[in-house]
Design brief:
alpha+beta; globular; 7 strands; two-stranded antiparallel ribbon; Heat Shock Protein 90; five-stranded mixed beta sheet
């Protein structure tokens, strides 16, 4: 399944790139639209790979999850000029910890969504991910030094709703702190 869909998505990217560079498209809106479709398709390939990775395992070690998160942050560094990223993993004993594939995928997607929200909306120059915990609890924090927002007047967008839904699905709790001009802190707490 993965190989066939991956090949089809790669064909779409190649076709779009051929259109962009094979024809002299002077319409800036059309150029931007083609670029957007190409980028969306590339993201879909990455998400498909991540989903297949999780589906192929009944359990995921935190060491493997940490590696996936680190790779995502490395890719975000490359594509997000002007943002300093930090990834802190405070307890190496967590490397031996094992979670179900559903838990691992949801943890990964929550972190991914929080980082993407910060990149797209916060105007941050610093984004940090910190993972801490032991056998009884787990705390994951994504912080940015961006413009922040008023929690009382702001509506949760799709990103925040997805984060809350994923956390609930794995028995977790989300704590969100933000104020205009003071950045945002998203914390995920998971009892074990």
């Amino acid at each position: 399944m993965h190989d066939n869909i991956g090949a089809q998505l790669t064909f779409i990217i190649s076709s779009i790139d051929n259109l962009k560079y094979g024809f002299r498209i002077e319409d800036e809106k059309l150029q931007n639209r083609l670029t957007g479709i190409s980028e969306f398709t590339k993201e879909t390939i990455y998400e498909l790979r991540d989903t297949i990775w999780a589906m192929n395992m009944s359990q995921i070690t935190f060491e493997d999850l940490k590696s996936r998160i680190s790779n995502f942050i490395d890719n975000a560094k490359i594509s997000s000029i002007g943002i300093d990223f930090k990834f802190a993993y405070s307890n190496d004993n967590l490397n031996k910890k094992v979670v179900t594939s559903v838990e691992g995928m949801n943890i990964y997607r929550i972190i991914q969504e929080a980082i993407n929200n910060a990149i797209k909306h916060s105007e941050a120059t610093k984004i940090a991910v910190t993972i801490d915990g032991d056998e009884t609890k787990l705390a994951i924090e994504v912080t940015d030094n961006g413009k922040g927002f008023d929690l009382e007047t702001s509506n949760d967008g799709n990103g925040l709703n997805n984060i809350r839904k994923r956390a609930k699905e794995i028995g977790g709790e989300i704590e969100l702190n933000s104020k205009p001009g003071e950045g945002t802190v998203m914390k995920l707490f998971l009892p074990q």
